Amino acid sequence: MAFRPAWAQIKRERRQFGRFGYQIFAFATWIPVVCMFNHYVGKPAWVRGPSMYPFLNTEKDQTTRSDMVLEYKFNAQYGLQRGMIVTFWNPYNPEQKVVKRIIGLEGDIIRTRSPYPSPTVRVPLGHVWVEGDGGERFSVDSNDYGPISTNLITGRITHVLWPWHRSGRVRWWEFAENIRH
Questions:
Q1: What is the 3-class SS of 112-138, one letter each residue?
Q2: Could you tell me which residues come within 8 angstroms of residue 157 by beta carbon, excluding any fewer than 6 positions away?
Q3: Residues labelled as active-site residues
Q4: Which residues, including other chains, have CB under 8 Å from residue 127's CB and lie 6 or more apart?
Q5: How far apart (Å, rounded) are the C-alpha atoms in residues 40 and 32?
Q6: Residue 7 contacts by C-beta under 8 Å, 6 or more apart in sequence?
Q7: Partner residues linked to 156 by β-bridges
Q8: Would the CA dihedral through 118, 122, 127, 129 be positive or negative?
Q9: Is 153 helix (H, G, I), strand (E, B) or coil?
């Protein structure tokens, strides 16, 4: 007895389901693929707030629109470097994701800003130091909650998708030289 795939059988019995039913079935077969891609590979994400200004949300004073970026999730916790922009779960509110730039890797000695209690800190193993580009007024970052575990990192920002005039690859390596230690 020969077994035929469900798709071939549905295609053969197209008259029974009608054209609309066939199109619904064809559409429904892609839902798991899209869900898996969004969960494990990457997805578009909106960046709200001024913490990454001036690099992201450069038009924060002119419009209420936020930047849309591509969050690349595949192996996001590996190969981290200074200057990369990452997304991670907020240590204060674990249901919220945050976007910040990596300032220090494990073993680095970082000069902190207020409100951090000490003027310098050594980043422990398995942690990174993240800060927003907006400065201490606009950003709640590692100066507030200390070094974050790399296990909290969920993705890297690789491309700006919106607004169109700024769309393209995020060149994080150009900012790596300007990071203060």
A1: CCCCCCCCEEECCCCEEEEECCCCCCC
A2: 45, 47, 56, 69, 70, 71, 72, 85, 86, 87, 99, 170
A3: 51, 100
A4: 106, 147, 148, 149, 150
A5: 12
A6: 29
A7: 72, 86
A8: positive
A9: strand
Do 102 and 129 form a contact (C-beta atoms < 8 A)? yes
The tens place of each residue's pLDDT in the chain, 181 residues long, gives 455 576 677 666 666 667 787 788 888 999 999 999 999 999 999 998 888 888 888 776 666 778 999 999 999 999 999 999 999 999 999 999 999 999 999 999 999 988 899 999 999 999 999 999 877 777 899 999 999 999 999 999 999 999 898 899 999 888 766 676 6
- Residue 61 CA to residue 94 CA, distance in Å, equals 29
Q: Cite the DSSP H helix spans in the chain.
A: 6-12, 14-28, 31-40, 142-145
